[in-house]
Specification:
By secondary structure, the protein is an alpha/beta fold. The protein has a single domain (2-242), classed as Metallo-dependent phosphatases (Purple Acid Phosphatase, chain A, domain 2, 4-Layer Sandwich). The chain has helices spanning 20-33, 54-68, 76-86, 90-97, 101-107, 116-119, 122-129, 158-163, 166-169, 210-213, 244-248, 258-267; strands spanning 2-3, 9-13, 38-43, 71-72, 134-137, 140-143, 179-182, 198-199, 203-205, 215-222, 231-236. The strands form 2 sheets. Strands 1, 2, 3, 4, 10 and 11 form a 6-stranded mixed β-sheet that branches. Strands 5-6-7-9-8 form a 5-stranded mixed β-sheet, with no helix packed on it.
Length: 273
Amino acid sequence: MRAQSDYRLTYAVGDIHGRLDLLEQAIDTIGRHGQGLNTRIVFLGDYVDRGPDSRGVLQRLISLQRDLGAICLKGNHEDMMIRAFTSSRADEFALWSACGSQATLKSYGLGEGDNPMQAVPWDHIRWLARLPLTTADPSRIYVHAGLAPRTPFRDQTEATLLWIREAFLRAPAKDFEQHVVHGHTPLWQGKPDPASPEILPHRSNLDTAAFATGVLSIGVFDRMSAGGPVEVLSVQGDAAPYPLSAIIGPSEPGERGRSAQAWGAGHGAGQTR
């Protein structure tokens, strides 16, 4: 696999959430699939929290960015982590704690009573803070969460790109100028199986809840043809039981918890799958 500016294929990797084992499998799979081709790798965000080795994931991504030119987009979990370490507001750390930070801090060797500020290298925080929100090819936008419907790209807000769910997921194809490749939402009414990607004419959702299902999805996109992936690759490891509310994840700012509660009311929230 050769990472060059004149790439033909983009490998877009869904939310990793601390699953270094699946990331390593994905890199091996991409290497074999793209052997001899001009390719690039785009990671769609959410590298930390929930899974067991967020530190290892970040270290591996830093090396992939340096050695292969991999593009690592910022996800909402990275944003929460950055804010927890750089804001003077205690509620920022509380918000991150409610969304899976314990697993991340444990991966850095944090013990009971230890100071998180001394456990996480500031090089990692600075790296996360510099991550871009989007990238593109001639036919697509790659972003963590999605885009606001009927809104020019220049008017999209950072909060939208990192957090949007329902308004984006329910919008029809005519509301977007380009195909959107995203992660962020592994489970909703339009995607009842968290372990399967959601491929539609106007968007490709590659979040397959790797931290819970043990499935990490990789969309293969040809820059010479518009629309969805020409192929979807997947790697698989051990699954872990999580309640539905944890698989759905936090909602947009100002609506945190509402979508999980609404979905769970009709689908048995609190059960594991």
